[in-house]
Structures are given as C-alpha cells and as structure tokens.
Specification:
- The protein has a two-stranded antiparallel ribbon.
- By secondary structure, the protein is of the alpha+beta class.
- Helix content is 30%, strand content 13%.
- The chain has 3 domains: 58 residues, no CATH class; 72 residues, no CATH class; 40 residues, no CATH class.
Length: 208
C-alpha cells in the first residue's frame, strides 16, 4: 500500500485561520463551507452609502438608480471635459449661420464635388471637434450636396427622419418621437412652471 500523502497548510482568505488540505486541493482558499458562503466582501455604495454584496469584481453601485445618479460629470464614461454645453451653444450661434452662408456664397451655392445645387451642406474640412480655432473660418468650409457630404462622412444624410411638432405641426429636429419644436417647447415650459407654482401655493397651510 502507498503511504498517505501529507497535507498542505493553507490560510483562509475569509477568516485568516490555518487549515490543512490534501495536495490535490493545494489551491484551496476557504477553510469551510461557511467561509465560502461569506466569501463576497461587503461594499459601500458611494451614492446612498448602503452596504451590499456583489460577485462582480468591478461593481461600484448598489443599484441602477444609484448608478444613474453617480455616473454624471467626470464620473461618466462619455465625459469629454465639460465641453458639451459650449459645443451646443456654438452650433446654435449666429456665427455658424454666417459662416455657412459665407461658404455657400463663395462656392456659388453649388456642390464642389459634383456641381449639384439642390440640398447643400457646409462641410468642415478640419473637423468641428478637432480644430476649434477654425470652426468659423470660411477657408475651412466646403459646399457639398447631401449625397457627397454623406460619402465624406460615411453616412446617409438623406435618411434623416423629418419629425413633426405635435402642437403646431411644423418640422422639427428635436429628439424623441413626440418632440415639440423650439417655440412650443418654450411655451410648454412656461405653462408647466405656472402650474407648478400654483400647485405649491394651493398646498400652503392657511392661517387660522
């Protein structure tokens, strides 16, 4: 008969106690079933500060609502230095409108690639996001038709869906299936604000 194999000493990762195992279990990490069941450490949610357990190695938040509240600003994976608001203001500025009209006038309101005069776009040769200094430089603009502009960017701009405002039935570029146009959205905002103020006044306790 073969001699009994000597056991190997291990340290439990949960309770830090010494225990012996046979050589075939030399990679054992827990001394008992109880320690194995309690192997997951307690984590603290940075938003609500509640304690929770998770087997996921990279989990940080206890729930999706806390994740939505926590992953904002610099903690978001899409954070780009807080330039989104500045970019949106620049895209809606009168400077961009003047730049676009200047590019069209210089090129005779025709596509520089195919000569089409239908739906034309003002294309930035050096991209809008890559070179902020030349965003409104007319020399950095190029008049392209909708098809040629799509080929430059590898996109189909003609497939953009024209949305209709549900209140005034005018075309709008708002996000969402039932987005209002800019003027209707402003009016709705004022109406909702007045309704909220009125509701707060009605909820105030009256003096005896």
């Amino acid at each position: 008969m073969t001699a009994a194999k000597e056991k190997i000493a291990r340290i439990c990762e949960r309770c830090a106690t010494d225990f012996l195992v046979f050589p075939y279990r030399k990679s054992a990490r827990w001394c008992s079933k109880a320690c194995w069941n309690d192997r997951t450490p307690w984590l603290q949610c940075p938003v609500c500060e509640s304690q929770f357990k998770s087997n996921a190695n990279r989990r940080v938040y206890c729930s999706r609502p806390c994740q939505a509240r926590g992953m904002v600003g610099a903690a978001s994976g899409h954070w780009k230095g807080g330039k989104s608001l500045d970019n949106e203001r620049a895209r809606r500025s009168i400077d961009l409108k003047h730049w676009r009209e200047s590019v069209f006038a210089r090129d005779g309101w025709a596509c520089r690639h195919c000569g089409a005069t239908g739906t034309i776009h003002a294309h930035h040769v050096e991209h809008w996001a890559k070179n902020e200094a030349r965003r409104f430089d007319v020399a950095n603009g190029l008049t392209l038709c909708i098809d040629c502009h799509g080929k430059v960017h590898g996109r189909d701009f003609s497939s953009r869906r024209i949305k209709i405002c549900p209140y005034c039935e005018r075309p709008t570029k708002g996000k969402g299936a039932e987005s209002a146009c800019r003027s209707c959205a402003i009016r709705l905002w004022h109406v909702q604000r007045r309704q909220t103020s009125l509701q707060l006044i009605l909820e105030l306790p009256f003096a005896p």
